Amino acid sequence: MDAQQDPQFTQWFMEPASFNPAVAGNSELTCISGTYRNQWVGLDGDPNTSMLTAHTFVDQLQGGVLLSFYNDALGQEENTMARLGYAYHMEPLSNGAIVSAGLSASMFTKKLGNEWISIDPWQDDNAIPNDKSSSSAIDIDLGVFIRKPGSFYAGISATHLLEQELSSFGIQPRRHIYAMGGYTHSLDGDYLLLRTNVLAKTDLAATIADINVNVLWNQMVWGGVSWRPGDAIAPTVGFEYATTSKDRTSTSQQVFRLGYSFDSTTSELSNYSDGSHEVFLSYCFKFESIPATNRYANPRFL
Questions:
Q1: How far is CA 14 from CA 45, 63, 103, 152, 283, in A?
Q2: What are the Cα distances from residue 243, in Å, to 222, 254, 285, 287?
Q3: 8 touches 148 (CB < 8 A)
């Protein structure tokens, strides 16, 4: 039996490192981000997903290091995954774009509860566990990413390459392939930017596309809409605050981002669900010390 799709996020474009290890370290800042999604509100046992991702560029490794964790709960089922990855960054191309290739290893765990309510309580179903049980498997992900800061990005990645079976349940996670791209177009200098993002994901049995368009005003506030054909339309809004400081001994850069989206369901689930809420939060930073300059006194001068 095959497992469900990987967790789905409407604001995936805010942190694509969560499914493409090659994105790790793509900024000169260290970034820590978290996403919480409450999907299909109103359904009994509706999915709740949390994702935490951190990555940074390490000069000694000439690449980025990634650490990611997610938890996905749906009724009696709970899925967790911890991922550790590395992305090698090549020398910038002539146009300033940077190409990176990433590899990550992950530990995937599925748990099933035993508080099931049978439609026919007088009938036994051997597929329903008698007690709480879990099963784990190790997997590998690969990715390639190209990015020109302030202009465009594109990437392709694959998760669950090994398709290791969860032996306790006879469940085999499906291999997933992600293709993404985005472009930033100036509408009024850096004061008003139009940003487009596209993601196609497939497990070779089904394919889903996410299309997002948003406008960033004054490098501070953005708003737009995402469309997932056959599933949902999602307005998105966000706030960003960046600060830079410098003194005689150190410099610092910090960026805070907060985003919210609401998925208005367009499929038949709209008859049973009030939609999906999602919140994104990230903090990126870089602190550097300025080496002290030694000064030697000259007895001829004050």
A1: 27, 20, 20, 14, 12
A2: 18, 5, 10, 12
A3: no
Domain spans of the chain? Answer: 12-289
The listed CATH number (2.60.40, 3.30.750, 1.10.3410, 2.40.160) that belongs to domain 12-289: 2.40.160
Q: Residues with Cβ < 8 Å from 73, sequence gap 6 or more?
A: 47, 48, 49, 79
pTM of the predicted model as reported, rounded to 2 decimal places: 0.87
Q: How would you write the pLDDT of the chain (302 residues) with one tens digit per residue?
A: 454 568 889 999 999 999 999 999 998 899 999 999 998 887 776 789 999 999 999 999 999 999 999 999 887 888 999 999 999 999 999 999 999 999 999 999 988 876 666 666 555 566 555 666 788 889 999 999 999 988 999 999 999 999 888 877 777 888 999 999 999 999 987 789 999 999 999 988 889 999 999 999 999 999 999 999 999 999 999 999 999 998 888 899 999 999 999 999 998 887 888 889 999 999 999 998 877 665 555 655 55
